[in-house]
Amino acid sequence: MKSKKRCVALVLCFTLFAAIAIGSGSSDSSNKKDVVTSTDSGTDLANDPSTADTEAKSNAENDASASSVPTIEEQVLIDTNGIKITAKEYLTDKIWGDGIKLLIENSSDKDYTVGCDALIVNDYMITDLFSSKVAAGKNANETMYLSSSGLKAAGIESVGKVEMYFHASDAEYNMVFKNEYAEIHTSEYDNMDTTPNDAGTELYSADGIRIVGKTVDENSFWGSAILLYIENNSGKSVGITVDDMSINGYMITPYFSTTVYDGKKALEDITIMSNQLEENGIESIDNVELKFHIYNSDTYETIADTEPITFSAK
Question: How far is CA 130 from each of CA 80, 100, 146, rounded to the nearest angstrom?
Fold first, then answer.
């Protein structure tokens, strides 16, 4: 009897150990299957047609984006009076925006400050803050940045043409040269959009000069501003100022003066200081009245002094 009990016990123990061994083996197999499944899934994901198409599309978009960034060929822009200016490359900076890298070489025996009389992008006058002092016999690497806000206001998404008018002066502010013209065509020249950004209320149109009131910005840097589109096809460069301006019936001093070269366009703000609006209790710019003084910017001869122009800013 005891022998039979021992046999039964041994059989039970053997069965228990076998079950544990099988369970352990099954568990290991399951873990390996999960790893294989994960690996296979990753392989399938990489080889999945939809994923490949997505990646290809993304790469194509990145390539297209990269190709839309303008490039230029290295070229000499100015070489006069011992000053040589060479355009080296087109740059795009995350902070400063687009610009043209310039090499300025001064082979003369005098120190000179080189600046820009006018900067024009895709036929739009653009504000520039370019100035570089180069000592006698020295060189300087500088970047002429294209105002990001100016490009945005003009609706310029692709820079195709950049025109520059350079000047240089000595330490006594004597001009060595002025309005030296240079023009650069970028790789986007054939694709640049030349559609005028002239939607708005036409305020003046005569003698090849158009002025359009576009928008009122009541949260501009200095206070408020009225944005104007100006187009000049008069055959001469013109200067424009604003006189006798009133807002909602109250006289206001406008801050506005611009020069637009012949055949060019501009988007400019009439700036209104916030303290003037506050002093007159003006909370909203509703009705505006003003006069334009338009003159030849080379001879200062008057082209037109308009009658009062009234328009609604609403």
Answer: 19, 11, 10
